[in-house]
# Entry
Amino acid sequence: MKVLIVLVFSLIVGSCRPQSCKNLPATFTSYSEAIGAVKNATFKVKESAGTFQSSWITSAYFYSCDGETGYFVYSTVQGHTYIHNDLPLSLWRGFKSASSKGGYYNRYIKGRYRLQL
# Structure
């Protein structure tokens, strides 16, 4: 009985650990599935940007496995969350340092790097 309890406990604890970004699937069935998987995985680079000056972007995060490209996840004042894939680290750094986050997004990211299902 003790062995069974230890086994069940080990399975529960092991399944609660975030998965490595290297084990993320190549495709997702929905954007919400992709966002959840990315937010719960472990990455080499995981950064956030201060968005307090933005009139419509409430949060922004960058997740990268290789330190070169990654997922860009942001939320808006309307309560929507969006995800872009294969965003170069240099664009993320530009976004982070931009005085206008929305302007930078519209000029360099919007319509590009969108995660394809």
In short: Confidence is low (pLDDT under 50) at residues 3-15. DSSP finds four helices and four strands in the chain. The radius of gyration is 17 Å.
